[in-house]
Amino acid sequence: MLITVSLVFLFGVFLALLIKFKALGCGTAFVAVMFGFFLASTGAAGPVRELTAACITALSDLTS
Q1: Are 39 and 45 in contact (CB under 8 A)?
Q2: pLDDT by residue (tens digit) across 3-60?
Q3: What is the pLDDT of residue 33?
Q4: What's the pTM value of the predicted model, to 2 decimals?
Q5: What is the 3-state secondary structure (H, E, C) of 22-38?
Q6: Is 38 part of any domain?
Q7: Rg (alpha carbons) of the chain, rounded to whole number
Q8: Domain count, the chain
Q9: Does 25 map to a domain?
Q10: Contact at 8 Å (CB) between 14 and 32?
Q11: Is 44 a domain residue?
């Protein structure tokens, strides 16, 4: 059975856990989220998506 999870969901959970355990302050979390939004609207969004897809493909090839 194949289960897919959105990377946005995973990063959101990770960010929430960092805030909960006080490893990341609210101000830093805001900066991290805003950086993500601004990065998504630049020309770097395409290469970041391609790099992420390549890493996911490489990881899935290692496990199969």
Answers
A1: yes
A2: 566 777 777 788 888 888 888 788 888 878 877 887 788 888 888 889 888 988 998 8
A3: 82
A4: 0.57
A5: CCCCHHHHHHHHHHHHH
A6: yes
A7: 14
A8: 1
A9: yes
A10: no
A11: yes
Tokens coding 57: 């493909």
pLDDT at 48: 82
- Structure confidence at residue 54 (pLDDT): 92
Asked if residue 8 belongs to a domain, the reply is no
pLDDT of residue 1: 46
Q: HEC string of the chain?
A: CCCCCCHHHHHHHHHHHHHHCCCCCHHHHHHHHHHHHHHHCCCCHHHHHHHHHHHHHHHHHHHC
Containing structural domain, residue 59: 19-63
